Structure formats: structure tokens, C-alpha cells
Amino acid sequence: MRRTRRRVGATWLAWGTGVLSAGLAVAAVPLAAANGEGPAELVFNHHAIGIVTALGMAVLGALIASRRPGNPIGWLMVASSAFLGVFSFTQQYAPLAAREGLPGLGLASWLATWTNLPGIAITITFVFLLFPDGKLPSPRWRPVAWVTGAATVVPTAVLAVRAWPVRGPALAVESSGHPAVADAWQTGFSLVLALSVVALVAVVVRFRRSHGVERQQIKWFAYGAVIGIPLGLPAEVPFWGPILELVQPPLLFGGLAVGIFRYRLYDIDRLLNRTLVYGLLTVSLAAAYAAGVLVLGGMVSGGRSSSLVVAAVTLAVAAIFQPLRRAIQRGVDRRFNRRAYDAAATIEAFAVRLRQQVDADALTAELLAVVDHTVQPTRASLWLRPAREGAWAPGPGNDTEL
After folding, report:
1. Between 362 and 165, the higher pLDDT residue
2. pLDDT band at 304 (very low <50, low <70, confident <90, very high)
3. Of the candidates 90, 94, 149, 368, which lies 20 to 30 Å from 337 by C-alpha distance?
4. CATH number of the domain within which 195 lies
5. pLDDT category of residue 312 using cuts at 50, 70 and 90
6. What's residue 396's pLDDT?
């Protein structure tokens, strides 16, 4: 009974905090509209990324904390969502309060100065260090965890202390760019970024030592991170940078959710294979199309665009699509999925011998050997039904178990 009560209490705490954090993040949108920021401005001013991250962390953190209460990752994500939700709300409320004379200006400007730093730190350091079971890769990583905790708490405390005396309209407008806190915020953020690289190394170390289910969990997380993290790097590039940045959180949270809840874990191998194949195929076809248009355009029409050249190159690209896809598939299987490649080669060789072999006993033994080599079952048997009366029938040597 006591355990049930604890679990119910943990569920209520997780979802209560998550709903509060998500509510604060959503409430930031109408406040931004009151400040003159439409949806496009929210994206291009990098305010939407904080709102989206707070929402994703709130929902996923509450799910993990309520269903896996023993895993600290859920509670860390709930805490991170609370910090980011408060930051998203106060970041919009503080300038509105300064302009309209609303209450709570001092508190809102103070909170908007430092609450984003612990939210970012927890997201990109501790979640990586503890994924997927909530434990460090080994006891040797404890100093890294302590340093990460200190790098999260100390700069946050310094920011909060420095911001308190200058809270008000000036801090509401400049926030972390205020001269009193700018250097402390930049130092803390730089430390967090450096430690996030160390946390990623922990994921790599854990993957190399893992096997079975844990390895598949890390693959899902790595899949989302490998695609999502590069999308956030060109965030300052005009127009496309902020848009690509918004794709990052769903990818990271998706991989993390599948890894922790173990939903269709073994589909990741097929997904990785298809991503590599069609990614390389797209790049190759795009390069061939561009080169064909440029080269043929220069030869035929003196560099000018020609509908005939474009049509010819399009037909050529369409013609090489399937052969190129098969070649890339073979190359990817040979390099990254050697077992499947060897199995396919074995089956193909057996199919060739099958057309030439007429001895049923030899075919039976060879078929069972191929099955054992490719599928590797714990048990296999073969039964052949005679085609007509007096034809060959299975005997003791033809019904075999492995």
C-alpha cells in the first residue's frame, strides 16, 4: 500500500509539474503577440525553440517519471522543463510589464536572466550522461557528474545574485545581455557546452560496452542526435537556420522516448539502413543532375538554361535510379550490415546451385546448412511431401533437427 501511494504521488508530482511548465510555455505565445512578435518573429528571434523544448521536456519527462519513477532522467527532464517554462514566460512578460506598468516586473526580469541556464545544462549534459538506465557508464564518471553539477549550479547562483540588485526595466529589456550579468552568463554557457561534449563521449563509451537491448536503446538515441544536433548548428544563418533549429527537439525527444520505453527497438537497424541508402542516393542523384545540367547546358546552349537539356538529364537520372540504389544498398550492407550481406550472398549462391542440383539428399543437407548459416535458429527441420505414389519420400536423413 505504501509503495502504491508513493507511485501515485510521484505520478501526480510529475504530471503536475509538467502541466505547469507546459502551461507557462504556451502562455508565452500570446504574451509574445502582445509584444509585437508573430509566429515568424518567434521563430527568427529564437524564442520558439525555447517554447518547443519546454513543451517536449514537460510531456516526455512526465511520462518517464510516472512510468519509470526509478529512472532519474524523467525527473531531470521535468525539472528542466520547469526552468525553461519559467524562462519562456518571464522572457515575454518582463518587457510587457515594463512597457505597460504591470505588476511583478522586478521578479519577472530577475527570473528571465538566469532560469534558462540550468534548463539548458540539464538537457544537454545530465540526460546524455545517464541515458538510458539513469546510471553513469561506470564509477569513473562520477567526477564528471560532480563537475557538471557544479558547472550548472555555480554560474546559475552567480547570475541570480548579480541580477537581483539590477532587476527592473533595464534588466527586462536586456536580460542576459545586461552588463552586470553578461560575462557570468557567457562563462556558464561555455562551460555547459564543453561538458556536453564530454557527455556525448559518455554515450559513445556506453555504446561500445553495451550489447543486446541497451545497444538498441542507444542506437535510437544516437539516431535522433546525429540528425538533430547538426540541424541546430547553423541557427544563426538567416531564414533557414531558425527553421531547421526547430526540427532538432522532436528528433532528440523521439529517439530518447523510443530508447527508454523500448518501443520497436529492433526497427532501428532497418531505419538506419534506409537512412544511409536514401541519403546517399539523394546526394548522388542531385550531384549528377546538377553536373549534367551544367555540363550539357554549356555544351549545347552556351551555358543558358535549355528545356531540352533539363528533360534529357531528368530522364538519365530516372534511368540510373534503380541501378544506383541497388549498388548503394550493396555497399551499405557490405560496410555496416555485414551479417545481412553475407546471408544474402549465401542464399544467392544456394539459389544458383539449386537450379543445377538434382540429388534430394544433397539438397536437404545443403538447405539446412544454409538456414543454419543465415538465420541461425536453435532448431530447424525439413519435411518434403512426395509428389506422387512411388516418388521419393522423406526418410530418417531427410527430417533433420538442429
Report:
1. 165
2. low
3. 368
4. 1.20.1070
5. confident
6. 47
Own/partner contacts of 347-351, CB < 8 Å, gap of 24 or more, are: 347/374
Q: 292 and 233 in one domain?
A: no
**Mean local confidence (pLDDT), 123-140:** 90
Instruction: Mark whether 258 and 276 lie in a shared domain.
Output: no
Same domain, 258 and 278: no
pLDDT of residue 85: 95
pLDDT reading at 57 higher than 80: yes
The residue out of 310, 336, 362 marking a domain boundary is 336
Of the listed ranges 79-83, 130-134, 357-361, the one predicted with least confidence: 357-361
153/183 same-domain check: yes
Full 3-state SS string of the chain = CHHHHHHHHHHHHHHHHHHHHHHHHHHHHHHHHHCCCCHHHHHHCCCHHHHHHHHHHHHHHHHHHHHCCCCHHHHHHHHHHHHHHHHHHHHHHHHHHHHHCCCCHHHHHHHHHHCHHHHHHHHHHHHHHHCCCCCCCCHHHHHHHHHHHHHHHHHHHHHHHHHHHHCCHHHHHHHHHCCCCHHHHHHHHHHHHHHHHHHHHHHHHHHHHCCCHHHHHHHHHHHHHHHHHHHHCCCCCCCHHHHHHHHHHHHHHHHHHHHHHCCCHHHHHHHHHHHHHHHHHHHHHHHHHHHHHHHHHHHHCCCCCCHHHHHHHHHHHHHHHHHHHHHHHHHHHHHHCHHHHHHHHHHHHHHHHHHHCCCHHHHHHHHHHHHHHHCCCCCCCCCCCCCCCCCCCCCCCCCCCC
pLDDT over 80 (residue 117): yes
Query: Domain of 308?
Result: 271-336
Q: How many domains does the chain have?
A: 2
Q: Does residue 8 sit in the same domain as residue 143?
A: yes
Mean per-residue pLDDT, 261-285: 78
Could you tell me if residue 287 is left (phi over 0), alpha (psi between -120 and 50 degrees) or otherwise beta? alpha
Q: Are residues 253 and 289 in the same domain?
A: no
